[in-house]
Specification:
Layout: H1 2-6, H2 15-29, H3 32-40, H4 47-69, E1 75-77, H5 81-92, H6 97-116, H7 119-126, H8 129-133, H9 135-151, E2 154-157, E3 161-164, H10 170-187, H11 193-204, H12 238-266, H13 278-295, E4 300-302, H14 306-312, H15 317-330, H16 334-337, H17 342-356, H18 368-384, H19 387-404, H20 413-428
Antiparallel strand pairs: 1-4, 2-3
Length: 429
């Protein structure tokens, strides 16, 4: 039954690792349950309703990933995409949150069409294999940076952009403890090291007042204030087209980058760089986005934090199913789940970043024509705080270097078309 439902292979997978992987993935991305309502509520949306929409959309998207794609990836409203929704479309451009939800809904429908026609798969196939292999270490640096930032170990600085955080802060010291503990468990090959690290760090944080338990159970808030709240009057406006295209670019290449990077780390990619079930994974992403817009939340996307569950040993849809169950429980156990501090999940993100650097050895840095674009892809992800910008800039660099160095015969028409589109995206969107 497990094999039929989730693609579980008893010869190479264990039930314990699949379940542990799903719980670990959920714990490392549970912060979205607090952050997404906080961001979207700045547009005037009801925070409680957004919380429920965030949970339900994550459950729906992740269940499609588990049962249809049978892959160990979890989905939820994406960071960056929710910021574009709130701060750009609503606060800066002055449109209503209903207008923004309409843009997300239209984007989801377009993604379904692109997936059914196989165009998203063709876009992936057009990318050079070496560039695809550089995505995983780029994501590793990116999520490690997220972990360091969430822990307070890296802080903003007006002069140098970033600097070392306050090492006298109990919260920062707790994160350092968590990193050391989890690292020791990994070195000693303890099963579930990441999950154990999260749980122990959470408990240790109680006497330091970093972990705060208020209550355990609460009724989920109603979806009524934001459910199916679309604004069709501006559907053909230029701004709507721009918003939809921007959502498309960010979501598509964030998802492509996450799926390729995490799949590389999991050993789920063949010699030609192909991922079994990729089209189905794209469909899960598209359905999640469309349903999420109906429920009342920003674009749903595949989470890079899925790498934490993969590194625990999750390999099938059973891992993502476990994550979906955890999200469903969060509807009634929100106070309990939200009490896990970012200092407890940060060590998992940082150490997963270490693990994902493995594929950097596949890049030949002595061959500059391929090394430079791969370096751009890897470095731009953490430095621009965007997986999609890293991929787009990497491919643009790849095409331009090959064109101007006389190696244009190594390019295919797909690469060239993508590079032109990406340049237009930065020039006009």
């Amino acid at each position: 039954m497990l094999q039929k439902l989730f693609g579980f292979d008893p010869k190479s997978m264990t039930l314990k690792k699949e379940v542990m992987g799903g719980i670990t993935t959920f714990l490392t991305m549970a912060y979205i349950l607090a952050v997404n309502p906080s961001i979207l509520s700045e547009t005037g949306m009801d925070a409680g309703a957004v919380f429920t929409a965030t949970v339900v959309s994550a459950v729906v998207g992740t269940l499609v990933m588990a049962l249809y794609a049978k892959l160990p990836f979890a989905l939820a409203p994406g960071m960056g995409l929710n910021a574009f929704f709130a701060y750009t479309i609503v606060i800066t451009m002055g449109y209503s949150w209903q207008f923004a939800l309409t843009a997300v809904f239209v984007e989801g429908l377009i993604f379904i069409v692109l997936t059914l026609t196989g165009l998203r798969q063709k876009i992936v196939d057009s990318m050079p294999l070496l560039l695809r292999r550089s995505i995983s270490p780029g994501i590793g640096l990116f999520i490690a940076f997220i972990g360091l930032k969430n822990a307070g170990i890296v802080a903003s600085n007006s002069s140098t952009f970033v600097s070392l955080g306050n090492l006298h802060d109990p919260a920062v010291l707790l994160a350092c403890f968590g990193i050391l503990l989890t690292a020791v468990l990994l070195v000693r090959n303890v099963t579930g090291a990441l999950l154990i690290g999260i749980l122990v760090t959470t408990i240790v944080g109680i006497p330091f007042h970093v972990t705060n338990f208020t209550s355990v159970v609460s009724a989920p808030p109603s979806l009524a204030p934001i459910f199916c709240q679309f604004e069709w009057s501006s559907i053909l406006s230029v701004d709507m087209v721009v918003c939809v295209l921007t959502f498309l670019f960010i979501d598509m290449f964030d998802t492509i980058g996450t799926l390729i990077g995490v799949s590389n780390r999991a050993g789920m990619v063949d010699e030609n760089g192909n991922i079994p079930g990729l089209k189905k994974a794209f469909m899960a992403d598209a359905i999640g986005t469309t349903i999420g817009a109906v429920l009342g939340t920003s674009t749903v996307t595949t989470y890079v934090e899925s790498a934490s569950g993969v590194n625990v040993g999750g390999r099938s849809g059973l891992t993502s199913f476990t994550s979906a169950v955890c999200f469903a429980l969060a509807l009634c156990l929100a106070p309990l789940f939200l009490s896990i501090p970012s200092q407890a999940t940060a060590p998992a993100l940082i150490l997963v970043g270490v693990m994902m650097m493995h594929d950097i050895r596949k890049v030949d840095f002595s061959n500059y024509i391929t090394a430079i674009p791969c370096f751009v892809c890897i470095s731009f992800m953490p430095l621009t705080y965007s997986i999609s910008d890293g991929i787009l800039m990497g491919l643009i660099t790849w095409v331009l270097l090959h064109l101007f160095s006389g190696r244009y015969k190594d390019l295919n028409i797909g690469m060239i078309i993508l590079a032109i589109l990406f340049i237009c995206k930065y020039a006009f969107l």
